[in-house]
Amino acid sequence: MKVRASGATDVGKKRTNNEDAFTIRSEQNLYVVADGMGGHSSGEVASQLAVSHINAFFDRHSLDEDSTWPYPYDEAFSFSANKVRTAIAIANDRIQRYSTEHPESRGMGTTVVAALVDREDLVICHVGDSRAYHFSEGKLSLVTADHSWVSEQVRMGLLSEEEASRHPLRNVITKALGTRDQAEADVAQVKLAVGDRVLLCTDGLNSMASDAEISAVMARRLDLDATCKALLLLANEKGGEDNITVIVIERVA
Description:
Layout: E1 3-10, E2 20-25, E3 30-37, H1 42-60, H2 79-101, E4 109-118, E5 121-127, E6 131-136, E7 139-142, H3 149-155, H4 161-165, E8 186-191, E9 197-201, H5 203-206, H6 211-219, H7 224-237, E10 244-251
Antiparallel strand pairs: 1-10, 2-3, 3-4, 4-5, 5-8, 6-7, 6-9, 9-10
């Protein structure tokens, strides 16, 4: 499977610094978006640490199923999923170590959503409320499930989607890197047909724009750079209350 990708980030209209980070590793078909949190620029540090340590793991390790893994290998998931989950677990450990060594950064954390090509599938791993969407045959589908308080209430039937979108606790996430000893990533696999696209984004996009509005941009079938710019513009036109980061991945063969 061959894919191409583009990414972009914007500080938004209300923030003065950008605590998001992203990476596109075309040679390894690895794509990562992170959204940091914490005072004194600690959120920016946390997201950059997540991205840099995930990159470093993929640079250093050529693990196979018979290798000695730094974290337990989960037979329930593919080799690729285990590799991404291990990279995320290591990033979690490094962020915790940094905050221990830098008291001013205590309490910092970051979300992460990562995608890796695995033969005919795209493996997606995430922690927090940064999202992955799949756009296929004109339809946008949410692949990930937010690790957030309001999303858990929606899944239990205690809040509607509309109530969740305006709830005062809508920004409270229940899982993030750097905030606990274990931050195991959820795993999903997406089968991509030629022409399908996957969107990775921080909540600076989906907290401002509805899925229908995001889908309308994706349906315009602009080139990847233009699609990223259009999504940033959409979020800013709707208020731009947070940093916005997107990666759009397309299967081309």
